[in-house]
Write a structure and sequence with these properties.
globular, mainly alpha, Ferritin, 5 helices
């Protein structure tokens, strides 16, 4: 593993941990029960992704609370549509970023596919 790959893996691990915490916090404040259920599911899946990266990095990281505080506040102020669109974009961006890791770390391919699916799931909430 190169230094650059290790940095990207650690960044990805941190991002997955932070996203799981953010989704749990968002599930607690959204008004729609269906949305809350989706966000709880996404939180669980992001936690699983963090474990994939933890196995690769052999590093234990702690989630940072920034997103879990910011995104629910944005939901309250900017509203559902704008925040969900931002979240979906972040999921799609994560999938693109993982492309650099897939060739060397095949287990990241499933995580990458999940991130695209997560973007689709959040986008679908806007179309219901």
């Amino acid at each position: 593993m190169t230094n650059e790959q290790e940095k990207l893996l650690l960044k990805s691990q941190q991002g997955e941990l932070d996203a799981a915490l953010m989704y749990r916090a968002l599930a607690a404040v959204v008004q729609d029960a269906r949305d809350a259920a989706v966000f709880r599911r996404l939180a669980a899946e992001e936690s699983g992704h963090a474990k994939v990266f933890e196995a690769l990095t052999q590093s234990f990281l702690i989630p940072k609370k920034k997103l879990s505080l910011l995104v629910p506040a944005l939901y309250r102020t900017l509203g559902r549509k704008r925040v969900y669109a931002l979240i979906a974009d972040q999921e799609y961006d994560a999938a693109k970023n993982y492309e650099a890791l897939v060739a060397e770390f095949p287990e990241v391919k499933a995580v990458q596919a999940d991130e695209t699916r997560h973007g689709d799931m959040v986008t679908a909430l806007l179309n219901i």
